[in-house]
Design brief:
This protein is mainly beta. Helix content is 10%, strand content 28%. The model has no long low-confidence stretch (mean pLDDT 86).
């Protein structure tokens, strides 16, 4: 929503090896503001959670979470860059980049795919990092789904096995969600 701006700050990180401190310079984003539209993609690699794939239930959980300012603190890159959450109507209001056809950010980190989130034969049994060609079009960045990203294997990994139902998770009814 706002123009992309940065500011540099001098920070004195603690040096634990001796009593002296160094001066380090960090660059941070300044005056950030985003609108986010999200949707659910079920993890088909977890058949034990099939009964919990209730979009209405999870939508209500997310809606209540956003109305309360989020479930956990969010950070924009680092711990000291805390973000705040509030409800909005996606696309409402004028954004700084709305009239710019395309702004390319180059190859960027997208996320990590764990073995239980595998989406292809190449990602099964592995932990891999996802990269993508990020671009903003008319003020909107549309994130690719994981299976459309470039992936690089980090290491071999087995799917973590959960215990019997109720041991490590529980399925709650829609009535409990509505409380």
């Amino acid at each position: 929503m706002n123009p992309i701006q940065t500011e540099t700050k001098g920070i004195r990180p603690i040096k634990y090896q001796n009593d002296k401190n160094d001066l380090s310079y960090y660059t941070y984003l300044k005056d950030c503001r985003y609108q986010v539209r999200a949707h659910f993609v079920w993890n088909e690699n977890r058949p034990e959670l099939a009964e919990d794939r209730n979009e209405h239930k999870h939508h209500n959980i997310a809606r209540r979470m956003i109305q309360r300012g989020g479930r956990r603190d969010i950070f924009l890159g680092t711990r000291e860059c805390q973000g705040y959450v509030e409800p909005c109507v996606f696309g409402e209001g004028k954004g700084f980049y709305d009239d710019i056809p395309e702004l390319n950010f180059g190859m960027m980190y997208h996320g990590i795919t764990y073995a239980d989130e595998a989406y292809s034969e190449e990602t099964k049994g592995r932990m891999s990092v996802r990269l993508w060609q990020a671009a903003m079009r008319n003020g909107i960045i549309t994130f690719l789904p994981p299976w459309e990203c470039v992936h690089r294997t980090v290491r071999e990994m087995n799917i973590k096995q959960f215990g019997q139902e109720g041991e490590n998770f529980s399925v709650i009814s829609e009535e409990e969600v509505m409380k």
